[in-house]
Amino acid sequence: MIGTHRTLEKDYVSCLSITNGHTAVTDQLSPDHPCSARVAALEVQAISRKAMVTAIPSEQEFRETTREWFGSQGFRVQDISEQGNEERADMLVFDESVRVLLELKIKGENEVEAEERSSVLSSGSIHRYSEFSLRRNRMSALISKAVSQLIETPVERDFNVLWLHGAGRYADHHGTRFIASLFGRRWLIAASGQDGRYCYYFDNSDFFRHRTELCAAIVSWGDEALLCVNDLHPSIDTFRQSSFRSIFGECCIDPPKAESIGEAYIAPADAPRGNVDAMLQAVATKYNVARLIDFSPTLHIAEASVGDGGKWPSSQSSP
């Protein structure tokens, strides 16, 4: 199952869920939106272990599903074979007008964190987990490796694109952090009480780092996905007009477009990234706002094991 997820700057999003070639459009609250209970700041969740898990596909399953979806959109797919120990991109997606080289990456739960959680739950204690929604070095390292594979693949193409999939526990939050890493994005609100907006390029960003090589990235979790456009790429206007871009419709993050309709900030290029206070002042000055506050959400989860099969133990059960 693959879907496309509309812009996260909206309170509500249209999800295009695609299962076995069938398409359906639904509306739901975006799990990435700061108003969502999934990632709201300071919220603590107590949810069952099963409810927190989405399946982690194997690399082969991910390839086959991706290949099938692009085929349903009228594109042809050619697998890329690795040569010896050289790691290369996964596939070439193309039609009569455009050729896109695609590398797939899956982000699941960290093994050390998983072992720690299992140990805490097995002891009968509550496992607490917190994580920011900001750029993460682990995500950036994964993105950089994927870009290097695209660069090293000797195949004729027009654009390089990544597909970054969040899976396992906290899958939607993996998606949120992929987006934050690509765009250096934070959620800012005006002290005057105006609506909050995402600010792009507030932090260091992987799209800036790889601006000449990487044109876009598809970010997905569960059965939802969206296209993130690297507006810093030198040929981005050509990409925006391509048939590849068009298959995502409005399920896309394109910062200049969001900024033009008053739904996003874009931090000044010469602002001192790494200095949060100075960045807030620089963005406020650019948009003539008296004062901005960084209100980027944090994920907080409390988890406990409640008995075999996720059921409360019977009152007659032996201790």
Spatial order of the strands forming the largest sheet: 5-6-7-9-12-13-14
The oligomeric state of the chains shown is single chain
Q: Say how many strands there are.
A: 17
User: Cα-atom Rg, whole angstroms?
Assistant: 21 Å
How would you describe the shape?
Answer: globular
Which sequence of SSEs, written as H and E, runs from N to C?
EEEEHEEEHEHEHEEHEEHHEHEHEE
Q: Strand portion, in percent?
A: 25-35%
Contiguous uncertain segments of 5+ residues: 1-52, 312-319
Q: How many structural domains? A: 1
Number of helices: 9
Could you tell me how far the N terminus lies from the C terminus, measured between alpha carbons in angstroms? 43 Å
Biggest sheet record: 7 strands, mixed
Mean pLDDT level: 78
Structure notes:
The structure is a single chain. The protein has 319 residues and is of the alpha/beta class. The protein has one domain. Helix content is 26%, strand content 28%. The chain is built from 9 helices and 17 strands. It has helices at 59-72, 111-122, 137-151, 171-183, 206-209, 236-240, 243-246, 255-260, 276-286, and strands at residues 2-5, 12-19, 22-29, 45-46, 76-79, 91-94, 99-107, 127-132, 159-166, 186-190, 197-200, 216-221, 224-229, 252-253, 264-266, 292-294, 298-303. The strands form 4 sheets. The chain has a 7-stranded mixed sheet. A 4-stranded mixed sheet has the order 15-11-10-16. A hairpin with a 6-residue loop joins strand 1 (2-5) and strand 2. Helix 3 packs across helix 4. The protein is globular and about 50 Å long. The N and C termini lie far apart (43 Å).
